[in-house]
Amino acid sequence: MPNWIEAVIAYLKQNTSLRFNMFWLVSFVVLLVFMPKEFIDFLNSGLSGGGYQNLLPILFSIGVSFFISYFIRVGARWINKLYQLTVDPILIRKRKKIILSLDDQDLMYLLLIFSQNQERTFRWGINENISSLCKAGILKLIRYDGENSVFQINNKYLLAVQDIVMFNQEIRAKYF
């Protein structure tokens, strides 16, 4: 392998992610495969002067595939930010409604687990409140130690519980 190719590969490995490089390679191959023959003939005849066949279409495809990969990466970041700004608050509101619709005993156990670093040990078969919270998907079993089990608040519901504890004065007055 020539030294300049190794230098390009080392530069790409150092300055860009592997995912970006792989997507760049895939988009490069797709551009080469689906490039119209007339466009390749135009680049070969008009711009290169006929000296190096297919050099300009390959160089053109490399540049275009890089920009396609870059804009898709930036677009994916924008879509992720937009999702976080629009959909996450809606989901948190729905989960808060689910938590606030729990009966007092279930809510008390949930807030007890939240106040003790989101993890608590209970007996699985005896406590109906814990089993109902698990069936609702609010708690999850993370470890089973014989007759005792360790439960944790599901990550989906953690922000909703934090929001309730911090901003709901009625809950704060009643349970804390």
UniProtKB/TrEMBL annotation:
<keyword id="KW-0472">Membrane</keyword>
<feature type="transmembrane region" description="Helical">
    <location>
        <begin position="55"/>
        <end position="72"/>
    </location>
</feature>
<keyword id="KW-1133">Transmembrane helix</keyword>
<protein>
    <recommendedName>
        <fullName>Superinfection exclusion protein B</fullName>
    </recommendedName>
</protein>
<keyword id="KW-0812">Transmembrane</keyword>
<dbReference type="Pfam" id="PF14163">
    <property type="entry name" value="SieB"/>
</dbReference>
<dbReference type="InterPro" id="IPR025982">
    <property type="entry name" value="SieB"/>
</dbReference>
<feature type="transmembrane region" description="Helical">
    <location>
        <begin position="18"/>
        <end position="35"/>
    </location>
</feature>
